[in-house]
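Q: What residues go here?
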């Protein structure tokens, strides 16, 4: 996982708190990588 991926994941998780509870690694919107 690159630094950019980490930042994207952090930003995405911050934008969608509910995803954290389900595991941001498993539950991601279609097309988001």
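A:
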């Amino acid at each position: 996982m690159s630094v950019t991926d980490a930042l994207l994941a952090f930003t995405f998780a911050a934008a969608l708190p509910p995803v954290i509870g389900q595991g941001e690694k498993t539950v991601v919107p279609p097309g988001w990588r």
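A: Context that may help when evaluating the design: The longest helix spans residues 3-15. Helices lie at 3-15, 17-22.
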